[in-house]
Design goal:
By secondary structure, the protein is an alpha/beta fold. 24% of the residues lie in helices and 29% in strands. The strands form four sheets. It has an eight-stranded mixed sheet, sandwiched between helices. The chain has a six-stranded mixed sheet with strand order 8-7-9-10-11-12. The longest helix is centred in the first third of the chain and has 20 residues, at 81-100. It is flat and about 65 Å long.
């Protein structure tokens, strides 16, 4: 069966029709005519994979990574950069209209950064295959639990990508090679960290091999035997701090391995500057940063001279935010507190009614209960940073249709190039 592909969905599948039934097709792009092998049939739709491409889209390019199509890390490498942005913008606009019944008055230009070698944080899987007497290190295969045998990765920083062959040999040499399921990567300003998840205590020889590897490649090595609290630095002996910066604001943030930070520091810097511009801050403003984390936006708000209160449910992140404010000499302008922003009616919000402006940066579930508490007398300006178009659209609908806000502008944030992941930023006002 041949199908004309009309669009691409948020999972990078081509979307076409067969006898008025929607067909989702792997490895198919808009305007392509493809042969389809149907793998699943449902009453309202079908899914399949393309077996050949009869008419090739002008947007189709050769993937840069040899693992593309197998590795689950990237789904868009076969699409040129401009079309990737257009697809993500369409996903955002469709979600806003379909779920929230809203349209932005202005579409913002996309926030972009490097297309490759951008990922400063990653969680790699590790597996020792007994039959092959070989260790695998990489991302998992698309839709499967198998580990891709990666010799390089195009989205990891180049100096980390080059380590992959030696990293496999290192794991392979461990006495507990079958008990090392995961390696966390974190790259800071001046420090590169590998954290090895180990289900058994390493031998003295294992530790010696780790130290040799770390010394050779100028790495900091952590070991994790259980939960995040068990993270232990094992090389070098002196404590090492992970940091990232927003240079033009003269801001430096310290973070821990178990603490959330954006994986794309270049895009994060642009995102923070965009958010500050949208807030249009004055020194007299009192601003609430909700889901503030370790202070990524809070410190930028304070740097403008405005007063900021940061709320976050995690005490460790609040402690980190307080420390980061002190590090940047902004403590006088910052007030960080633990607050549950997911409770019904969000009682913590009552103390925020006097705020001039809000910045909201929730997790994927969005901020439904918080938004309910905003009410019709809430701040005149709200900047909403989202990692999920669906929950942004839902919350936008509440703000516009129930609380009298206007969706002044919205646009995508390309935090994860070459993937289907869509982040965005939106401005609401009276």
């Amino acid at each position: 069966m041949e199908v004309l592909i009309e669009s691409v969905d948020h999972e990078a599948r081509g979307v076409g029709r067969n006898d008025n039934k929607v067909v989702f097709v792997e490895n198919a792009l808009p305007q392509e005519i493809v042969g389809v092998d149907i793998r699943r049939r449902k009453p309202s739709y079908e899914t399949g994979v393309s077996t050949y491409i009869k008419s090739v889209s002008a947007s189709r390019i050769k993937p840069r990574c040899v693992n593309f199509g197998v590795c689950g890390g990237c789904s868009f490498q076969h699409i040129d950069a401009r079309t990737q942005l257009a697809i993500k913008q369409r996903v955002l606009e469709d979600a806003l209209e379909r779920i929230g019944s809203v349209r932005p008055e202005q579409i913002l230009s996309p926030i972009c950064g490097p297309q490759f070698n951008y990922r400063s944080r990653a969680r790699l899987s590790s597996r020792y295959v007994i039959k092959k007497e070989k260790a695998l290190v990489g991302f998992r295969e698309k839709g499967k639990s198998y580990v891709v045998d990666m010799a390089s990765c195009e989205v990891l920083p180049d100096h980390i990508s080059r380590l992959l062959p030696e990293l496999k040999l290192l794991v392979q040499s461990f006495s507990i090679r079958e008990r090392v399921p995961q390696i966390e990567v974190a790259c800071g300003n001046d420090v590169n960290v590998l954290a090895f998840r180990m289900l058994e205590d390493p031998s003295l020889e294992d530790l010696r091999l780790l130290e040799q590897f770390a010394a050779k490649h100028d790495l900091v090595i952590f070991m994790q035997r259980g939960g995040p609290a068990t993270l232990t630095q094992i090389y070098p002996d002196e404590p090492v701090a992970l940091t990232y910066s927003i240079t033009d604001m003269n801001l430096t943030y310290e973070f821990g391995l178990s603490e959330f930070t954006q994986v794309n520091t270049d895009v994060n810097s642009v995102l923070v500057r965009r958010a500050m511009s949208m807030l249009d801050l004055k020194p007299t403003d009192r601003v609430a940063d909700l889901f503030c984390g370790l202070g990524n936006f809070s410190l930028a708000i304070a740097r403008s001279g405005a007063q900021v209160i940061g709320l976050e449910a995690n005490q460790e992140l609040i402690d980190r935010a307080i420390d980061n404010a002190a590090r940047n000499e902004l403590s006088d302008l910052c007030d960080f507190k633990v607050a549950n922003l997911f409770t019904d009616g969000c009682p913590d919000y009552r103390s925020l009614q006097s705020m001039d402006k809000l910045l909201i940066d929730p997790p994927r579930d969005g901020a439904a209960e918080l938004i309910k508490g905003v009410g019709s007398d809430g701040p005149n300006k709200i900047v909403y940073v989202s990692c999920n178009p669906a929950t942004l659209a839902r919350d936008a609908g509440t703000l516009v249709h129930e609380h009298g806000y206007r969706l002044l502008s919205a646009g995508i944030v390309n935090m994860f190039p070459n993937t289907s992941h869509v982040e965005s930023i939106a401005l609401f006002g009276r």
